Amino acid sequence: MISLKGKTAIITGGSRGLGKAIATLLAQEGVNIGITGRNEEQLKSVALELQKLGVKASFEAFDIASEDAVKSGIDALVSELGGVDILINNAGIGKMGTLEAMSSADWQEVIQTNLFGVYYAAMAVYPYLKEKGEGDIVNVASTAGLKGGAHMSAYAASKAAVISLSQSMMAEWRKQNIRVITLTPSTIASDMSIQAGLTDGNPDKVLQPEDFAEWVRDILKMNRRALIANGSIFSTNP
To answer: Three-class SS of residue 184?
Structure first.
């Protein structure tokens, strides 16, 4: 296992749910944190919490679906934090409904956010990792991307595309010592999944954000000669 202390991570969608849990756990390991999202007040509040853990923490508010905004926001975070070693591509939305009921506009919003957002953030961070000669990119997909289901066509399609994109990144960038990790969690008790009625969030039976965060931390701490290219995590007995 390697130490993460002193490294810098940028976490998209880092002010709530999975993103906040990952940011908090990595900060406890001594990782400096940059978080992104659309709610500036929420981002500021979380950044202040992270700073109390003794690390540098900054935030940038922007829409992950805008390529220009992602590039300028990530460049600003890298400048503020003095570099970047890790990208956690976590930002995403879930719009559920039947194929008949969902509009093409909803479909486009899901694809633009969940797929292009991952692409934009990775491409913004990649030049820094390439110059450094190492780094880690964790792309958060979903088991929905492995097998679609009723009422989740747009979400499942976006996550399937993320899986494929992430695997292509891994194939291209691993020779530059950049580990690209594709994670496919099952339902986790996040605001999105609870509001969508996918789970009641029972902490005794359903995966919690901190479970996923611990998994991410442990993968990142593996010796750099080792790469977890793909992985899934499920609740044991929901």
So the answer is: strand
